[in-house]
Design goal:
Length: 133
């Protein structure tokens, strides 16, 4: 049986496509949304503020939420502990709007509603909320 040496032509015709395919298969999950875990519902949120999980932090969270509600009444305004949301820094109170079905929908709410002028540090973030049954 003759031995075959690996030259550039052989490499690019046979081995390179297999390496490229393996790489694409390996990174494919990175671009996908994580499958929903039981008890958690993924969504996109407009984060308006995060405050320490203290009484003073809770008071500030309610003040911020009141300001937002007066200027932009919304059924989607949330004041909560971050423990109820995967993907948010634990140990804080969060003031946010959502959930939205996509990053684009959340970003649109942030930029077209005037919220960004009221809360310049606001940003969009994906998180999963705990489903309480």
């Amino acid at each position: 049986m003759p031995t075959q040496t690996l030259n550039a032509t052989t490499f690019f015709r046979t081995i390179w496509p297999l390496l490229a395919l393996g790489f694409l298969i390996a990174i494919a999950p990175l671009g996908q949304t994580r499958a929903a875990d039981p008890g958690w519902r993924p969504g996109w949120f407009v984060i308006l503020g995060s405050l320490p999980e203290t009484q003073a932090g809770l008071n500030q969270a309610h003040l911020l939420a009141g300001t937002v509600e007066r200027n932009f009444p919304s059924e989607q305004l949330i004041v909560s502990e971050t423990a109820f949301y995967r993907g948010l820094t634990p140990g804080l109170y969060v003031v946010m709007l959502g959930p939205y079905p996509s990053a684009a929908a959340a970003q649109r709410e942030l930029t077209t509603s005037g919220l960004k002028e009221l809360v310049p540090d606001a940003y969009v973030k994906q998180a999963s909320e705990r489903v309480l049954e």
